Each structure stands twice: as structure tokens, then as C-alpha cells.
Amino acid sequence: MTRPLLFCALLLALLSCKKNTHDDPPPVTPPVAPAAAYFPPSGSPAWETIAPATAGWNSAALDTLAPWLQSKNTKAFIILKNGRIAYEKYFGTFSADSNWYWASAGKTATALLAGIAVQEGRLNIDNKVSQYLGTGWTSAPLAKENLITVKHLLTMTSGLDDAVADDDCTTPACLRYRADAGTRWAYHNGAHNKLHDVIEVATGVSYNQYFAQRVRDRIGMNGLWFMSGYNLIYGSTARSAARFGLLLQHMGQWSGTSIADSGWLATQVNSTQALNASYGYLTWLNGKSSFMVPQTQQTFPGALLPQAPADLFAALGKNDQKIYVSRAHGLVVVRLGNAAGGVTLASSGFDNELWGKLRTVIGGW
């Protein structure tokens, strides 16, 4: 995603605005959270911590983590253990109150929001996209356009051409036919961007408003969605990103309240199509037998992140914006900052290198 530097300054100003308040969604009775679970309170900077030594971590290995993170252009880094902060570092002038963009890590939040719209009966992912946007939203022949369902946008299998000059572009001329929907996996920002429009049409409210009502305000996040070129991007503090990761860890449940349907989350964080086993609903998956990555049609054997827990799933964004979750190990890990190395759209060499270090710190899996 292209992102002029001025957007960061704009984001800081926008995020200082007061949250929208609107009528709450109907309550849902959730399953009881495990006794060991902890959820930070809303409207308070207080957040319980756990000492790494108490968790049995390798203190000597942990001491080497901050210098390495700083060398990789990191601005914020958080590890939650069962919801409590076990490690939190900020670098340079960045602080716990600083906001940063999520880039494509926000796609995972979009998938969650789509699930909420489905739960409320506002959206059907098996419907064709043109049912919400009208025909002609692509330049594909009508018969081919009508093959594309909302589910295809959630799984990156629209069949629209990702090799256009501007992969972010959402005009019909940029959304051109390449293959029948469901027959080709390709990481395509332009096609994904139309999902925001689908959710707005289905719910009848702005995307920012719906996310604030249904997710952000209910779990104590800050932040908002803002436009950068064709892309709608979320920005927040690192702690808000950690809150979102914690919501995913608990499969849509938050401190005794159901935010999203656990059945939807179970689908979102598992393989949703046979083309790329390591991709769910706009969410990256570890521990599968093979994976694909953006900008190539090659399928690679093995797990996406061999050094990470096999059950890990992740929201991954350009320039190494990361929200990782391992439910088996009670871990949520957040990294925000500039690119750790070369610019990549989602996964990068940083992922595996980081988890190699965390494996030494935490003690393996």
C-alpha cells in the first residue's frame, strides 16, 4: 500500500477526536471465559502485568530482544501472556500513547467485522458482490463478474487480475477479469478494498461507525479508519492492537461479552479454500502443509513460519505491522514500526527471525 508520510501526522490528529457514541448492538450471551483469562478494563490505562520470570522465560535471552528490535526499526512491541503484559517496549519518541497505521493487518479486522454483519443478518457472504454494489463494479464480462461472491473477497479468490499497474486501484478499469472466481488465489488489495463498500451497503452505516460500535468501543480500543489513496487503513496505539489480538485469542469473546460469533472466528482462522492452505478469511495461518505469498503464484511446501507455534495465526501488514496470536500458548504479540528489512506486503523474513528469538525466550513449543 502506498502511504505518504503526511498520513502519520494526519492520523495522530484524527485519533485525538472523541469516540463516536451510538446505540449498542443487541446483547448476546457468551460462553464463560477460562478462569485464567484476563481482559484489561476499558477507559483506563491500567493493565495487569506478569513478570517474565514468573512465566518461566529465559531472562538472558529476553535482554537481547530490545536491542535487536530497535535495530529492526521497531517503534512498539508488546507480548501478552494470558492477557497480561509480559513485555512492552517503545523506541525513539514513540510511546504507549502514540498511534501508528496497521496497513494490511487491518484486513483481519475487516474479516471480523464482516462476521459480525453476518451474525446480525445484514450480510450473506454467499451472495454475489454485485447484489450489494450493483453490476459494473468490475470491467469483467457480466457473467464472470456475477461469479464473484463476498466470500471470494474474504479469501482472495476473486479471480480479478492482481497484475494491474496499481494493485490498490478500485475503479472498474483496474478490476479486470483474469480467472473464474474461486479458481485462483492472489493477494489483491483492489479486490479486497471493495469489501469495505459491501459492508457499508449491507449495514447502512459508515465503516468507521460500524467498527466503532461493534468492536472498538466495546473492547476499549482507540483508533479509526482513514483513507490512503484507494486504501482504507486502521491506525491505533500498540495497546489497542493488542486488545484486538486478545479478542481474536478468545474467539470473539471479551470479558463475559460476545463481540463476534465464535463459530465465525473458528472459520476465519482456519483454511478457507484449497488454493492457499495458509490463508483463512483475510488472516494468515501457520502450521499448514504449504503456503502462498503476495505477488507470486508459486506454492511453497511447509509452514509459513517454521519457528512459530504451529497454531499461530496472524494479521500481517506492509512494512512489518504484525499482530500474532497463539491460543495454545496464551500469546498475543504486536509489532509496529517501519520496515524491518525489505518492503513486503505481508509476511517477511522478520517473522521467522523474530519467532526464532521468542522461541529461545519463552522456551519452545
Automatic annotation (TrEMBL):
Beta-lactamase-related domain span: 76-342
Keyword Hydrolase: yes
Gene3D superfamilies: DD-peptidase/beta-lactamase superfamily (3.40.710.10)
Matching Pfam families: Beta-lactamase
Signal sequence, renumbered to the chain: 1-23
Top-level taxon of origin: Bacteria
UniProt keyword annotations, A-Z: Hydrolase, Signal
GO MF annotation terms: hydrolase activity
InterPro entries: Beta-lactam-related, Beta-lactam/transpept-like, Diverse_Enzym_Activities
Name listed for the protein in its UniProt record: Serine hydrolase
Top-level taxonomy: Bacteria, Pseudomonadati, Bacteroidota, Chitinophagia, Chitinophagales
